TrEMBL record:
<feature type="binding site">
    <location>
        <position position="90"/>
    </location>
    <ligand>
        <name>Mg(2+) 2</name>
    </ligand>
</feature>
<dbReference type="InterPro" id="IPR022337">
    <property type="entry name" value="Inositol_monophosphatase_SuhB"/>
</dbReference>
<feature type="binding site">
    <location>
        <position position="89"/>
    </location>
    <ligand>
        <name>Mg(2+) 1</name>
    </ligand>
</feature>
<dbReference type="InterPro" id="IPR033942">
    <property type="entry name" value="IMPase"/>
</dbReference>
<dbReference type="GO" id="GO:0046872">
    <property type="term" value="F:metal ion binding"/>
</dbReference>
<dbReference type="GO" id="GO:0006020">
    <property type="term" value="P:inositol metabolic process"/>
</dbReference>
<feature type="binding site">
    <location>
        <position position="67"/>
    </location>
    <ligand>
        <name>Mg(2+) 1</name>
    </ligand>
</feature>
<dbReference type="InterPro" id="IPR000760">
    <property type="entry name" value="Inositol_monophosphatase-like"/>
</dbReference>
<dbReference type="InterPro" id="IPR020583">
    <property type="entry name" value="Inositol_monoP_metal-BS"/>
</dbReference>
<dbReference type="Pfam" id="PF00459">
    <property type="entry name" value="Inositol_P"/>
</dbReference>
<feature type="binding site">
    <location>
        <position position="87"/>
    </location>
    <ligand>
        <name>Mg(2+) 1</name>
    </ligand>
</feature>
<feature type="binding site">
    <location>
        <position position="215"/>
    </location>
    <ligand>
        <name>Mg(2+) 1</name>
    </ligand>
</feature>
<protein>
    <recommendedName>
        <fullName>Inositol-1-monophosphatase</fullName>
        <ecNumber>3.1.3.25</ecNumber>
    </recommendedName>
</protein>
<keyword id="KW-0479">Metal-binding</keyword>
<dbReference type="GO" id="GO:0008934">
    <property type="term" value="F:inositol monophosphate 1-phosphatase activity"/>
</dbReference>
<comment type="similarity">
    <text>Belongs to the inositol monophosphatase superfamily.</text>
</comment>
<dbReference type="GO" id="GO:0046854">
    <property type="term" value="P:phosphatidylinositol phosphate biosynthetic process"/>
</dbReference>
Length: 273
């Protein structure tokens, strides 16, 4: 295992132990609202602090971009070529409700490109890992995306708009289109885990808009190392800056792009002045 991946695994397991302890009685967990339908708990903050402590102990010069604490460098400041992108608890709303679908996501970008990835599901003790060029693994067993070649036979994951509800009508159009076109749509509520599920073949594809880098940095590498494709709805590699993600096995990906490209931010009409 790559030494940097080893540190990411250590950090993810530490965060997972914090989450598991808190999950025994979620009613005792203090919850704050960041914005509409967007929550943070003391568990998110404790898990994030533990991850950052382990990473900074090993790599004090590396930059951090984390959901709760933000970026570790000032705007305009020269940044390290290594940036750790962290979501300490992806699926906070699920966690608050005791719905066991949430995960720790840690991705390492080297000069902006994902190079190491960990997604850890503490409930099931499932550890998804990948290093660039070395394949993707679930609990040390090699994983691959599915080989289904017809979208009509595919199980597809998605995420609904929940912070900014302005895009709901357009999403419902996509929802109807995809529902007619695939075997089933699933919305479990933790994008990092959904992407890991594409990588290991539990889902054939996934699409969502409004994601942040920490939702996808690790999952993207898992999928590409498992033989899948990741882009925006138009199939272009702008998902990190746009927050618009489409992923799947190569055949499903191409068919989903044909359906969803018209909805892509690439094709958004400029706002009227």
């Amino acid at each position: 295992m790559h030494p940097m991946l080893n540190i990411a695994v250590k950090a993810a397991r530490k965060a997972g132990s914090i989450i598991n302890r808190a999950s025994i009685d979620v009613d005792l967990v203090r919850v704050s609202r960041k914005q509409h339908n967007d929550f943070v708990t003391e568990v998110d903050r404790a898990a994030e602090a533990a991850i950052i402590d382990i990473i900074h102990t090993a790599y004090p010069e590396h930059a951090i971009l984390a959901e709760e604490s933000g970026q570790s460098w000032a705007d305009g400041e020269e940044q390290s070529e290594f940036t750790w992108v962290i979501d300490p608890l992806d699926g906070t709303t699920n966690f608050i409700h005791g719905f066991p679908q949430y995960a720790v996501s840690i991705g390492l970008l080297h000069k902006g490109v994902p190079s190491q990835a960990v997604v850890y599901d503490p409930t099931r003790d499932e550890l998804f890992t990948a290093s660039k060029g070395a394949g993707a693994f679930l609990n040390n067993r090699r994983i691959r995306v599915t080989r289904r070649d017809k979208l009509a036979d595919c199980l597809i994951g998605t995420g609904f708009p929940f912070r900014d509800l302005e895009g709901m009508d357009e999403y419902l159009e996509m929802f109807a289109l995809m529902t007619r076109s695939c075997a089933g749509l699933r919305r479990p509520g933790a994008a990092a885990l959904d992407l890991a599920y594409v990588a290991c073949g539990r889902l054939d594809g996934f699409f969502e808009r409004g994601l942040k880098p920490w939702d996808m940095a690790a999952g993207m590498l898992l999928i590409t190392e498992a033989g899948g494709l990741v882009g925006n709805y138009a199939g272009e590699s702008r998902q990190m800056e746009q927050g618009e993600v489409l992923a799947g096995n190569p055949k499903a990906f191409a068919q989903m792009v044909r359906l969803l490209a018209p909805f892509s931010l690439d094709n958004a009409k400029p706002a009227a002045v």
